[in-house]
Amino acid sequence: MSRDPFSFNNPYLITRSLYPENQETPIHFIPSNHTPDHLFFRRNHFPYPTLNQSRFWIPIGGSVLNPTIFSNYDLLKLPSKTVNTVLECAGNKRNFFEPNVFGEQWEKGATSMGKWKGVSLGTLFEITGLEKDAKEVIVEGYDYGNRTDLDQIYTYTRSLPLEKALHPDTIIAYEYNDKPIPFKHGFPFRLVVPNWYAMASVKWIKQINIINTTFEGPFQTVDYVYYPKKENDEGSFLVTINNVNSTIQQPLHMEKLETGRHMIKGIAWTGKGEITTVEISTDGGETWSNAAIAHTDGVHDYTWSTWSFDWMVSEKGEFTILSRARDSYDRVQPPNPFWNQKGYGYNAIDQIKVKVE
Questions:
Q1: CATH topology for 245-356?
Q2: What are the sequence ranges of the domains in the chain?
Q3: What distances in angstroms separate CA 127 from CA 65, 121, 165, 212, 312, one per listed residue?
Q4: What pLDDT, in 10s, does the model give residues 74-119?
Q5: What's the mean pLDDT when you consider all of the chain?
Q6: Where are the alpha helices (DSSP H) in the chain?
Q7: In Å, what is the CA distance from 335 to each residue of 63, 190, 332?
Q8: CATH 3.90.420.10 is the classification of domain 14-238
Q9: Buried b or exposed e, range 33-42, using 16+ CB within 10 angstroms
């Protein structure tokens, strides 16, 4: 018997930790292409910063020709840019790595999507100018705290290579889904970096500095680094572009179903190009069929793609359902994830089990 899997209208965030607050989006119950702000996943390394008037100014300095302090009013007067994009925590699906890795045990909901409005970072650099030897752009947030591994106080700070910082879709956002960014998601200003894992999209921007060297802060060179070997740090490299990925939203894992027709639904996204195919298997990977991909209102940008597959099941029993996405760069979800010490970038073929009675 078929049913509307999105008839529920009161989902809640899924708590992973309270201090600092880390909460998952109830991804299985998000039917639209814009995640409501109260259901957008929350990822914090430290407690929320205190909000005061100083937060409404952004100084830009370092290797620039004209150091400038931009006010909220200044940003609102500049040409705006709207970007529809997925923001996915690098640790999304960490819980599924084998062997297990330490860190927030995210399942499938450390990813959300919506519409961000702001000013291209490159627009601000047109005003400040850049010195010829400019190499990286450091963005520092107001959130801070003690790192027990280093026994020192740090603010959350990241850098971008100049080329990525100058991309017109890399923006300092001040709106989310046509409203001011909620405080817990970076109000009044946050960086939004499409196609990169969300650790790059620094919240509560405090200041921006351009440097002519390589930034080596701990959130750049200790965290958000792939360490492929368990016993040492050989072969490590930075976490940057989102992997191609998919998630089955409905049916739910371990759900009991009746014989008949069922709609298998889900989402797929990528950090390069766009999703071209999503394949579904209802027999544990022995055979595959193409799902139908919906293109919403002709707006793609950096959004996830919604997909569906009409499944007619007449036999009772237990079934393993798989989803496998491919993008326009021919990147495809692998059978097994790329294991790494910190559990970043999980993108193995998604799977659930159901029982038909």
A1: Immunoglobulin-like (2.60.40)
A2: 14-238, 245-356
A3: 9, 10, 15, 19, 60
A4: 999 999 999 999 999 999 999 999 999 999 999 999 999 999 999 9
A5: 95
A6: 72-77, 121-128, 162-165, 218-221
A7: 45, 35, 9
A8: yes
A9: bbbebebbbb
